[in-house]
Amino acid sequence: MAKIRLVSPRAIVLLLLYLVPGIGQTVAPVLWFLFSAWMLAIQYCDYPFDNHKVPFKEMRTALRTQKVANMQFGALTSLFTLIPFLNLFIMPVAVCGATAMWVDCYRAKHALWK
Fold first, then answer.
1. What are the TM regions of this chain, as residue ranges (predicted)?
2. What dihedral angle (degrees, nearest 10) is formed by the CA atoms of 33, 35, 37, 43?
3. Residue 18 in contact with residue 69, Cβ under 8 Å?
4. Tens digits of per-residue pLDDT, 54-98?
5. How far apart are CA 53 and CA 12, in angstroms?
């Protein structure tokens, strides 16, 4: 439910930007790609965070501390899902990548066991 409250207002604003002449064709697609990259990072990082019972709000705060790394992860995941047949394999690879990112960056601070 928290994800829907996070995504819905932002998605509506981005969709309304498409209706503005000039901005809808130039700026809105770039903003939509950045938004989807951030949401993919949140979606795939949610698996390891949820396995360790980290609340969603705390997860978002933790992901914001390393926003560049998470945006790169989300952008690459988004780009690879556009490639036919590769997109079938990228989903489990992205879950593994998010888990590896959890171990490298977040486990020391957020894990119940250390």
1. 12-35, 79-103
2. -140
3. no
4. 999 999 999 999 999 999 999 999 999 999 999 999 999 999 999
5. 30
Domain range summary for the chain, segments of one domain joined by +: 2-110
By the 8 A CB rule, do 108 and 114 touch?
A: yes
32 pLDDT above the threshold of 70: yes
C-alpha span between 96 and 37 (Å, rounded)? 17
Angular region, 22: left φ>0, alpha ψ -120 to 50, beta rest: left
Q: 76, 78, 82, 73: which is closest to 102 by C-alpha?
A: 73
Amino acid at 73: F
Burial, 112: exposed, middle or buried (Cβ in 10 Å; 0-12, 13-18, 19+)?
Answer: exposed
Query: In terms of residues, how long is the chain?
Result: 114
